[in-house]
Amino acid sequence: MGEPRGTQGLLDGFPILPSCVGKRVVFMGDDTWKDLFPGAFSQAFFFPSFNVRDLHTVDNGILEHLYPTMDGGEWDVLIAHFLGVDHCGHKHGPHHPEMAKKLSQMDQVIQGLVDRVENDTLLVVAGDHGMTMNGDHGGDSELEVSAALFLYSPTALFPSAPPEEPEVIPQVSLVPTLALLLGLPIPFGNIGEVMAELFSGGENSQPHSSALAQATALHLNAQQVSRFLHTYSAAAQDLKDKELHQLQNLFSKASADYQWLLQSPQQAEATQQTVIAELQQFLRGARTMCIESWARFSLVRMVGGAAILAAACFLCLLASQWATSPGFPFCPLLLIPVAGGLGGAVVYVGLVATIGLRLDLVLLGAVAAMCSLLTFLWKARAAWGSRKPLATLLPLPGSVRLFLLIRLAAFFSDSFVVADARATPFLLDSFILLLVAQLHWEGQLLSPKLLTVPRLGSSSSTGLPRYSGAYALRLGVGLLLCTRLAGLFHRCPEETPACHSSPWLSPLASMVDGRAKNLWYGACVVALLALLAAVRLWLHRYGNLKSPEPPMLFVRWGLPLMALGTAAYWALASGADEIPPRLRALVAGASVVLPRAVAGLAVSGLMLLLWKPVTVLVKAGTGAPRTRTVLTPFSGPPTTQADLDYVVPQIYRHMQEEFRGRLERTKSQGPLTVAAYQLGSVYSAAMVTALTLLAFPLLLLHAERISLVFLLLFLQSFLLLHLLAAGIPITTLGPFTVPWQAVSAWALMATQTFYSTGHQPVFPAIHWHAAFVGFPDGHGSSTWLPALLVGANTFASHLLFAVGCPLLLLWPFLCESQGLQKRQQPPGNEAEARIRPEEQEQPLMEMRLRDAPHHFNAALLQLGLKYLFVLGVQILACALAASILRRHLMVWKVFAPKFIFEALGFIVSSVGLLQGITLVMRVDGAVSSWFKQLVLAQQR
Amino acid sequence: MKDTDIKKLLYAHLLCIFSIILSVLIPPLFLENFSILETHLTWLCICSGVVTAVNLVLYLVVKPNTSSKRSSLSHKVTRVLKCCIYFLMSCFIFHVIFVLYGAPLIELVLETFLFAVILSTFTTVPCLCLLGPRLKAWLRVFSRNGVTSIWENSLQITTISSLVGAWLGAFPIPLDWERPWQVWPISCTLGATFGYVAGLLISPLWIYWNRKQLSYKNN
């Protein structure tokens, strides 16, 4: 309950000021001040204020010390911050007997103070906020922002009796008033106006001199405000030039009048009043201008932005539904909106140029986006609206709709945004369990034999379970476990007594205990090796590791090198203090070179992958003569059993389809045999390699122990992909679709990983140290490189998951081989295998996608659009939350940072998604040219 | 299926609800300082015990599953023992799931475990009463087209609604209302209880409204 937060502007630096010029400031009360103004007080009595139910600790503590301190006289400024009334309001509300007790206690306190205050002392009783009828505050309602101000001094303050209806004074005016009364300079950033009456010198003074004193105080104040406006308008452009100019004129006039007043002091009272009025007018005008400019929200732009976002989400949804339907007009639907957007932009620029307004880039972008959206929707409506009603185009499954709704609603509550790091794993776990439960409900989890009721056979035999026993259940439990373990690396948005960040997020170098440090270092290296081994094992399992292509050579030799570099860098970074001095230069050099070397290796690996993405092993030979076919699958004695498993006989069909004409011409040439392995996993192998190569430099940007989270990340996505694949039946010959469940779970997992890598959507939680990885001495004047490094650190999970998104489409095909193997192994299933002889063939796996290239492209497009939709709806909700709750107390602390982080994450995700899809397309193109080359080679 | 069956089901469920209400109202007469929120664990134990007892009594009186073929004493004893083991197993499994969901591992172990116990009481105990300690039958009931009687159907509904209630109960925890019931696991146990009561109320009504569509082949 940091109470003084509402008064930040009022208090900013104020209590420090007196102590700087040698005044003794004594404080008693709320211990929040201790952290806000450390070392500002000559004497302080802090009392714990956190517990809102505790009405008395702070107040009684103050009362114990207040009068003795006052009488002791060792002070120039005494601040007593009573908190009981505020806590009482929160706990009981304004109409409670407790409140009456508390208020009468405060009355007694004021009475006591009034009795003791001496003639040269001013008693200021101020509340920093009011309260609603429930006793809460933080909003901007009249009840909440009005508070009482009571000034008392035994010397008469006011020349005349105070007015019946007291004046309303802005809270910002307290600072200049108190500063001048204490004989201090007014703080530079102040825009308040001194309370002129307090400077009149009391009823004894002459009206003439009192007016002069008021004018002097106001003039000092006006000078300060004018200086501030001058400096501010030079640095920022958001003040309106015209108004600024008017104010400056007003100030010069008032200043001139004031100088004239000083030179000829015997002026009429009217002149003095004019000067005072002018100065006050200037101060009020400046304040109004600043408030208008600083607390200005462009509602039109908010609504416009939200509308564009919503329309784009709608577009994604529509297009993702249409993409897989036959005859989807890709080209016109792409080109026309682009043309529309460009046209709109050109028209806007022309309009602006003719009218002569300033070109606003934001508006330009909005106009272009709106035009392209409208043309798309218009085109889409023309093409499809007549045939299908809209309702059938929005088939989000119930579970996904529920989870998305919960997630979107959570963005509107500051508590949930703050607790998002806990809520996301909760939702992810629920989603996973729901998936498992759904699989069971549909009868896909268990073999029908287990379900003893005979009539159940009818429903189960159609959707044959591809996995025996509790396979999906095991996957689900494994996922839950991984999520929970990753949740151990939790960072709080703010350190509060209720929340402690995980100690494992700090770098190893900050650890004191050498033994624990070594153990942790060992664990991190083990995690690194495990990650490496897992990727190699996976590639080995699908056979791609055997390929002699450069990317696989890189995986064999370059990846271990990268792991070695990372481990060495960690060793240097964590043990930097224990190095003998003569090696220091060497170590400094190594800590510059090693991270750059790892990053360079990763980049070169990615380049290799893009250059030669087809990782297959070709074996050619003069096999058994065939009369009818030119190419036959490898059928001789295989070197290993694994070889046999990955023979893909489909080459034949492909080449027959693609080059039928050419083949017919060359049919007479000699019989040839070619065997290609690992063609069934060629896409995923490239994806997994790319993800690993990406993960290593990102891992290097994090603290050492986050490597465990990266290992968990890979494990988790592996398990999730398997679980999702268990629920998707393999479609032969398309159209291929990725279910919404898969996409939403993937997006949820990306968010969860964002949190479990020690991030939070608040600015203090950004890992700035990432900017110094590989650049221990800073970057000089360059800003984009550190920004890139910090951005890569912050949005690492967004990037990895977006790039890995196409795996959602590919994985079910990969699992085909697994399912078949499993089915062939148990002897009991032989009968079933005999029924489906076509399944006895080697699995086609990902080559099924190549069988229907049109459907493959459509599925990729659909996948991307679905992912963008799920992310886009979230950012839409964030934007709406930040704009609707723009007057909320927590908007700058919670909603606005959340929106900024989500927006940046969305951009990173979109770029990553594009790159992932590009990689798949590149592999696709390479596979095509590979086939072509193969055919040409055979013909020669 | 007859209307008398549904009526029987309704009365049985009303008895269960009544027992839960009694578990709130009766203890203050005997225990000092008893309230659901302040002495939450005591209430959990009492509620769990009462609901288990009522379920057992109902099972013995109504005997919804008529397929008790063998009735030798040793068979009965092993059956009871098996039921106890199943109940304990389900408590531990629920506990593990809560921890995996984010419940603290070391702190509040007793609270978490008692939450597992009360959730087991609302879900496992009726299953044990109705289906006996046969996992296959449980798996059958909780799959599409798996139910064979209105009792199993109502079991499905109450179990799922208890679980959903417990799940929904976790939602108020992060909110900053500072109410005493927002503390783990009070909101979840209350959610599970409300879910169970709602399931008990809904299931007879739902079966009554859908009695035309429902056809249990084994009846």
From TrEMBL, chain B:
InterPro entries: GPI_biosynthesis_protein_Pig-F. One of its GO terms (biological process) is GPI anchor biosynthetic process. Its main location: endoplasmic reticulum. It is a multi-pass membrane protein. It is found in: Endoplasmic reticulum membrane. It comes from the Eukaryota. The chain crosses the membrane at residues 9-29, 41-62, 83-106, 112-132, 153-171, 183-209. It holds the Pfam family PIG-F. This is Phosphatidylinositol glycan anchor biosynthesis class F. The gene is PIGF.
